[in-house]
User: Fold Homologous-pairing protein 2 winged helix domain-containing protein from Somion occarium.
Amino acid sequence: MATKAKTGEAKVAVLKGQEAEDMVLKYVKKMNRPYGAVDVAANLKGAVPKTATQKILVSLAEKGELVQKTYGKTTFFVANQANLEDMPAEKLAALETEHKMLEETNKVLLADVKGVTAELSKIKSSPTDSELAAQLEDTAKAVSKAIARLEPLRSGTTLVSTEDLALLDAEWTKWRAEWVRRRKIFNTFWALATDALPPQESAALAEDLGIEFDTPEHSTVEKGPLCAPRGSVLGKRRR
Assistant:
């Protein structure tokens, strides 16, 4: 069964005679590029049938309006360049000036686009109003919590009792003495084990075994008030 044509499509009027010839010539001159008869007929949307288009193109070539070129079995037609209107020097200069102005305008627009794009990227990376509201709420809660913890100190309330301080001092003294004892034992045995080794080999051996010696920070703590042998160290630091 044949397919019916769509009712919504507009029917193109088929031209004949001089009207067809004028349309073909106008189109080829306007496009100013090589075309075959099939291409011209197709681009004219059927206004000039393919067979008529071929005859018109050949006729126009014979009249000198078009130039006919054959490549193998394919024939092309192009507007005769000698018949085209020359571009006056003044018009060329005006076009060049306009071209330069458009280039400058384009540069300005490109710079504007670049700036707007950067601003847009900055806006997209910024938090939204709802996110800012949530952040402000979280910050306000954190501030309130910090103020609540500072209130006892501002009022002079003792947060750690004397008994707790004494217990901490005792624990500190006990475990620091144990640490000093173990360090002394290690240093004694390490000196015996590495007595015959040069300093470089001794250091390499310690690195291989993963031994960590005291750093300058440890020495600073040892010389500070925290390791002072007198009285209640923790209690004195808090007074």
